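PT: before anyone asks, these are the final sequences, not the draft ones from last week. 1166 residues across everything. Please model them as a single complex and drop the result in this thread when it's through.
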Amino acid sequence: MNACVLNPHSILGGNHLFRFIYEGVGQMLPCWMAYVVAGAAIMLILINAVLLGAAIVSWGERRLLGRFQNRVGPNRWGPFGALQPIADLTKLLTKEDIVPYGADRIAFTIVPVLMVASLLVGAAVIPFAKDVALVDLNVGVLFILAVSSLTTIAIFTAGWASNNRYALFGAGRAVAVLLSYEVPVVLSVLGVVLVAGSMSLGDIVVAQAVPFFLVQPLAFFVFVAGMSAELNRTPFDVAEAESEIIAGYHTEYSGIKFALIQAAEFGGALVVSGLIATLFLAGWAGPVADWLGWLWFLIKTFIGIFLFVWIRSTYPRLRLDQIMAVCWKFLMPLSIINLIAVTLEVFFLRDAHGVLTTADLWIMAGINIVIAAVSIAVFGQLIRQQVRNSSQTAPASRLVVSGVSTIEVSQGQG
Amino acid sequence: MTIRTEPMTVNVGPQHPSTHGVFRVRITFDGEDIVEVEPVLGYLHRGTEKLAEERNYVQIVTLTDRLDYTSSMINNQAYCLAVEQLLGIEPPPRAKYLRTLTAELQRIASHLIAVGFFVQELGAFGTPLMYTFRSRERILDLFEMLCGARITVSYMRPGGVFADAPDDFWPALDQFLNDFEGELAELEDLLLNNEILMVRTRGVSPLPPDVAINCSVSGPVLRASGVNWDWRKMAPYDAYDQVDFDVPIGSSGDNYDRFWVRVQEVRQSLRIVRQCIEQIEPGPARLELPLVLRAAPGAEAYGRVEASKGELGFFLVSDGGISPYRCKIRSPSLINLTITEHLLIGWKLADMIVSLGSVDINMGEVDR
Amino acid sequence: MYGLEMAKGLLVTLTNLMRKPFTVAYPEQRVRQHPRFRGEEFTWYEERCTGCASCAKYCPLGIIKIVTSPSETAPLQGDKYLLETFDIELQRCMFCGLCVEACPYDALFMGSGFEEGQYRRTDLVISIDRLRQADKNPSTWFRPQLESMDYRPGTSRPLGWRDVGREGWRWHQREKAGMRLQGRNAEDDA
Amino acid sequence: MWFEDAVFWILAVVAIAGSVGVVLVRDLFRASLLLSLVFIAVGGFFILMNAEFLAVVQVLIYVGAIAVLFIFAVMLTRDVQRGNTPNRLQVPAAFIATLLLVMMVATVVTTDWTTLAGAGLENKSRVAQIQAVGIPDAARLTAAGLTADEVTDVQTGGLADLLIGEFVLPFEAVSLLLLAAAIGGLALARGRGR
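LR: through. Structure below.
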């Protein structure tokens, strides 16, 4: 009996499930085959979890949006319309799969695959309970950012390959937004990494004796804003601005490809909410019972999704140049301020072993909340000034009692 | 050093989510900046003016419903005023008040649509639109109570309105007015000073008053440019000389002002409706007229109202028959579209949609 | 402070989240239908109709097709015509109600229903048989006499031809337009 | 290990085929897509070498930023489908490419890759140890008494040490270059219009 033994230090070594399957299957099959089988099993779980999650998010978002808008939302199929995503999927699957004339067929086809793939791979490193992530990568945070940057290429390819000018507009906008917002997002995550002392998401959760949205409110703000830009959600959804450029880069997609793109979008919302929960809301750590970690994690993820939906339901969209201005003139300074403040605090507060105690975290929270309030107010004022100067608006409109039957404005010049 | 760019021509419409029906603009972009605009009209042309020559004076009322289908009451009113002028008759006072009241309710409904879609085009995900439609739905319910239809009302007839309001209409109207105060306040909280909306619309696509006058635009678009021009004040028709209201005037004529003027006009319309309820007195609501009307040969009449989108006029010529010899419709949406180039050129794609929305065109009226 | 209005907007949407939805879930629930509602299926009382075709003439679209022939009692002057066809092409109807307005004897009413979806356009023509057999739930549109008796098409019972006229039903039977139908229908006289 | 060898060969084939494709494919857009494929494959190599940090950064920067810039530039050129027509720059380009190839081959050949002697390493710092390990496959790791996690941690730190320490001058020079490029880009973009 040559049972295979997984090297505990290999990438998947920390995954109990993988080891269990690997060693179990290894009893009967050669080791490499066991490795493949275990990997496939893990991938199956991952794909199902994320895509089902995306389906639930799509339903939940529509229900929530409906309630925000004082209507019901999907309610026809299943309890509370919960089977609606399945109906949608069935409809999309049975639709004709159109590749527009003049499109680059290969590039057009790989886009949905690429988007879903990057989403799935990114979801793999998020710990959804104590010590339960598919992979506890020691560079988890960076990994997610790196993988999500693949989406940029996918979107660009979609816009280019569709042979549609609206899609091209959307792609150009999306890339501009994605590239710009990556900078403040990475900088804000850097603050988290500094305090936690690790890039592994598992370690970051453990380090949150005080949830980081209190310790680093600025980073939280920047991260949520930046991520809603990267997810193409209002007020930063220029890339899919349906009132301007129809659907942006996925205008020409139909059938299963469209379904995949939608799955990637809703799944993206799910993964990003999970990431927010992990980075700022202390992930699976809850008030009682570690084994209930998945529950806390789900609740916190829901908070993230609710936040996104709430913002989406409330605000109009910004223009592209204004989004750029918000990124470079508002979020960027905020994230740098946060980074500097956190660096200094960590430098002065840590003890000899470079460890921060809970008391230290509370001190940091106190300082940082003040800093956040002040800097958001100051930079908000600055960006407002900028906006005022750029527009040639006369004083505010006024109410005039009419009754005079002459035109008060001189004609001519036209 | 300059970078040479290549212009790109894009067809916006007639199948576009935010061109208000089947409006088509051929736009040449430089990057996202607009350098050339060419509106293409006529996709919804139904020949209303010609159809009117084949129908008798009462039947034409049903055609006017379908011009600007978001404010059919006001279209009815304009047409009926023209016919009454043609025939030299005057409706009874109760009919006048009923007309004023319903026209103002319709103005509220129409402005609610304009505001809702305006914000929708700014990118709000349907929420303000849903709120405005919620209120508009109440108004349409009132219309259904009055005349059995919600959109294509055909409520007014030459010589009055088709029938007096039912008894349960007045309490329902009171109920609506009270509720709507709150809903309007909510809407103003959500929109009027929203920073994102301000940033997107303040100073964008301003329309100077001289250009506005030279393009002969009318309605909220004209008033937003600071021109004090409202037919309800200039040449009061129906019961407008009996009621007291203000005309909101914008200052710079930008997108925000056009939006702001509409919101304020909703408030003023509420005032008018309340005054109408106070002043209205019992009496007949319709003149006793024959089913088929005939005007004197050669008679001409021009009836005009301040519709929700601007000056709406019906020019009727009679040859003594049962239908007009000629019916010319001066539709505000079409004439307001003459400022398209002025509004759009030099602004961005995203502003273009918003500017078009702020003009509040209705293709049923543009193409007639 | 900048951003305060945006926070106010969030508050507005949140209060609306707590509110009861405005939606009416249509097939299960229905909005209150007002008695004047101009519905799709027309209510027609053959007993009242003389076949004068005023409705057909007054229809702006000309979608009412009436074919009549002299009835057996034709020699009696002023008798009603025998109606062979009374077709209403619903597919082109715009429910303006002018036909109802034109009807001198209150024989044609707007209906109160609105669920007339069909799979074929030809099914949208209401034939005379359908008009005869349909439930009589007339809309009160342009019929003040129905309004004054507080008739509610949805909830009140269907109305027979005797109850819907401006004048008493006997007038219709005996005096209108010199109509003489004595002995033709003994029950009605009773 | 058999499995890792297999992955290595797959990645190698993908990388080389991709690079050949980049050169041979006429359609510039597809060429840049293939280029990003090559970048990802190289990232895969880094993972095989237990250098996750480098792999992630490779994907983040090369695929997420540089390849996108390539595609952006490609999008702005004319006749994307036809690709470049032969022009005068072919000869110097070939010359420079050959030169680069020679330099790289020379570097590979002259570098002493087998530094894992084992002797004397215990006294050096962890960073030095890792540097000495070079490509850390399992056998070498066990020989040096290191775990993969440790290697990555120390690699990240070592990378930082190297960048800020030994190679600070080239590092700063590159940042200066990037700054200049950014300012140049701004100047170009602002020159037009207002």
